[in-house]
Amino acid sequence: MLQIASMTFNPFQENTYVLYDESGTCVVVDPGCYEPDEQLELKAFISGNNLRVVQLINTHCHIDHVLGNEFVKQTYNVGLFIHRLDEPVLRAVSAYAPNYGFNQYQPAAVDGFLEEGGEITVGKTKLAVLFVPGHAPGHIAFYSANDKALISGDVLFYNSIGRTDLPGGHPDTLEKSIREKLFTLPDDTAVYPGHGPKTSIGFEKRTNPFVRA
């Protein structure tokens, strides 16, 4: 059974996820850990649960979701995987990170790409890759039908949606992604967003003020 651990890091209050199961392997999604104490928290969780990191993934590559990429890569000797369309977004972070006070940001090289129709493997669990642009050009989400769980990144939040005023964002595209890719999932699907508390597809379809079913 898929287990999903969440840690909230950096001034943007970004949710970093560790996906794991009884096999003892895990995948790190969107490591926002920047300060040493944040890195230690992530490392302590992984070691405390005797987990072995096998992959590093970004749902998208805005600064708050990638601050810990290089730390995870170097600590666990794993590859970084993103959607191809977000590679320029990742490269741009080095240029503007100091403007946000992240003077020690270490860029990480991409090792491979994920596309819709593909999947990621967490031990015995497989999650489908969903292409959901609109907040970022190469935004992807991860869905486990068996576990009724969605890692949504910054597409869908509790009673909110991702902002579209950043480079590569587009409101109509985001709404289309939510309606056609997320709101078509079962209502009892748990949604684990990039910021804020967990929600569900059914709840957002009924109450989200920005996009309703």
Write the layout of secondary structure elements.
Layout: E1 3-9, E2 14-20, E3 25-29, H1 36-48, E4 52-57, H2 63-66, H3 69-76, E5 80-82, H4 87-96, E6 112-113, E7 119-122, E8 125-131, E9 140-144, E10 149-153, E11 156-157, E12 160-161, H5 171-182, E13 190-193, E14 199-200, H6 201-207
Parallel strand pairs: 3-4, 4-5, 5-6, 10-13
Antiparallel strand pairs: 1-2, 2-3, 7-8, 8-9, 9-10, 11-12, 13-14
CATH superfamily: Ribonuclease Z/Hydroxyacylglutathione hydrolase-like
Strand order of the largest sheet: 1-2-3-4-5-6
CATH fold group: Metallo-beta-lactamase, Chain A
Q: How many beta strands in the DSSP annotation?
A: 14
- Poorly predicted runs: none
Order of helices and strands: EEEHEHHEHEEEEEEEHEEH
CATH class: Alpha Beta
Question: How far apart are the first and last residues' alpha carbons, in Å?
Answer: 30 Å
Helix-strand category = alpha/beta
The best one-word shape is globular
Average pLDDT confidence is 97
The second-level CATH architecture is 4-Layer Sandwich
Beta-strand percent range: 25-35%
Q: Report the sheet with the most strands, covering strand number, pairing sense and barrel closure.
A: 6 strands, mixed
The helicity comes to 25-40%
Would you write up a description of this structure?
- This protein is α/β, with parallel strands linked by helices.
- It has one domain (3-207): Ribonuclease Z/Hydroxyacylglutathione hydrolase-like (Metallo-beta-lactamase, Chain A), CATH 3.60.15.10.
- The protein is 25% helix and 29% strand.
- It has helices at 36-48, 63-66, 69-76, 87-96, 171-182, 201-207, and strands at residues 3-9, 14-20, 25-29, 52-57, 80-82, 112-113, 119-122, 125-131, 140-144, 149-153, 156-157, 160-161, 190-193, 199-200.
- The strands form 3 sheets. It has a 6-stranded mixed sheet, with helices on one face. Strands 7-8-9-10-13-14 form a 6-stranded mixed sheet.
- The longest helix is centred in the first third of the chain and has 13 residues, at 36-48.
- The radius of gyration is 16 Å and the shape is globular.
- The model has no long low-confidence stretch (mean pLDDT 97).
